[in-house]
Amino acid sequence: MCGVVLFKVFIMLSAFTLITEAQYSRKDNMDAPVPKLITANGYPVEKHRVTTEDGYHIQMHRIPAGRRTARRTVGSGGKGKRAVLMVHGLVGSSGDFVIMGPKNSLSYILADAGYDVWLGNLRGNIYTSHQNLTRNDPAFWDYSFHEHGKYDAPAMIDKVLKVTGLSKILYIGYSMGTTTFFTMMSQKPEYNDKLIAFVALAPAVYVDNMKEIATFFLKSMDIITTLRQRGMLALGFKQDVMDFVAESFCTARNPESDVCMRIMYSIVGEDYEQHDWDMTPIFIARAQPASWKQLEHFGKIAMTSVFTEWADGLWGALKPYRLDNVKIPVSLFYGLNDRLTEKSGILRLAAELNETGVLHSIKGCNWPKFNHLDFVFAKNVGKLVNRPLVGHIDELHNKYYVQ
To answer: Which residues form the Partial AB-hydrolase lipase domain (predicted)?
Structure first.
């Protein structure tokens, strides 16, 4: 019974984002690192390392050109090109933006459109480490998305600017990648001067609809405290455990018997039409770890209906993040069937941004069943969202970027 409960908890908590970095249709490549997946699809790739102010090492992955770009452009390092930084969600990685391949994944589509694409990673996943702490040290996991905004995102933005020589870049965030943006701007508003605009995919700022789940797990069951006491430093499982879960529960190819997707869709919204059955065991097996404080911080926001700092803990005082510190144009994109970051929360965020004059646009995906995870791995995400999104990004860049 305990194992079943923990499995359900894992699925529900990890539903904030896609949790994989495997190649979209090749199970034999599910263990390949992101740079290998990029080169396998015919794109140039670079690895860059950045160190945050508090000592975390982050590996960034760069796609400086598209597949059809002249090699001389690649050789120049992409200098002078339009640059975008893409930041993933909870328990995800840079692989979120390459998993569905060249026809669907936003990073490839942007690269082919002439953009210099930088894929960020946030502390805790496989592409991060610390200069002094190991992953077996509890201090390594002592962070939430507050630190992502305070340290990780600024360090990555500065790295892109330094390498490219540009004065500004465009930021694209998915799920917790959007939370990271807003927490960064609240703490370091000077970064408005380093960004052209912000594109938010399924922004995770107001998640009131998760209040019941958060209250049950964090207050009624107090499950995270129990797991900490049993020595679990973070949300994460050994690879053999993940493989067992994937092979035992996630191999069915129909809605009636696919336990994994039934549980997940109960949280993020059902969309079997856009689900690739080959993906289910792969993204479960490729889960990235997350700190308990990340989950607790989201829980605090859900239970209080306030986009608040961690302050003095889960049950501590509320200190709202300063959304009015955002001074650059913001575009919000949401799924009509997203139960995690649902429309009401997006509209609330849009109203606050509109009051300060920074809301550029807000748009829901035309597919009526489009859910939270579809932004990353819907079968037709290229057609439904990403290809039209390139035109929107062009508009933002052309309208707001002044050297």
So the answer is: 35-100
| 390 burial level (CB within 10 Å; 0-12, 13-18, 19+) | middle
By DSSP bridging, strand 116-119 and strand 83-87 are parallel
**Among 148, 275, 360, 372, the one annotated catalytic:** 372
Residue numbers of the domain that contains 382: 2-400
Q: Alpha helix locations (H) across 106-222?
A: 106-112, 145-147, 153-164, 176-187, 211-215
Q: Identify the CA nearest to 120 among candidates 97, 147, 144, 101.
A: 97
- Say which residue the tokens 């053999």 belong to: 240
Q: What is the pLDDT of residues 152-199, one digit of tens each?
A: 999 999 999 999 999 999 999 999 999 999 999 999 999 999 999 999
The question of whether 105 is a catalytic residue gets the answer no
Residue 295 contacts residue 222 (beta carbons within 8 Å): no
Per-residue pLDDT band at 390 (split at 50, 70, 90): very high
Is residue 175 annotated as a catalytic residue, yes or no? Answer: yes
Domain with residue 200: its CATH number is 3.40.50.1820
Number of domains in the chain: 1
Say which residue the tokens 């396998």 belong to: 40
Give the pTM. Answer: 0.89
Helix axes 153-164, 176-187, angle to 10 degrees: 90
- Which DSSP string corresponds to 285-347? HTPPPEEHHHHHHHHHHHHHTS-B--TT-TTS---B--GGG--S-EEEEE-TT-SSS-HHHHH
Residue identified by tokens 């390139």 is 390
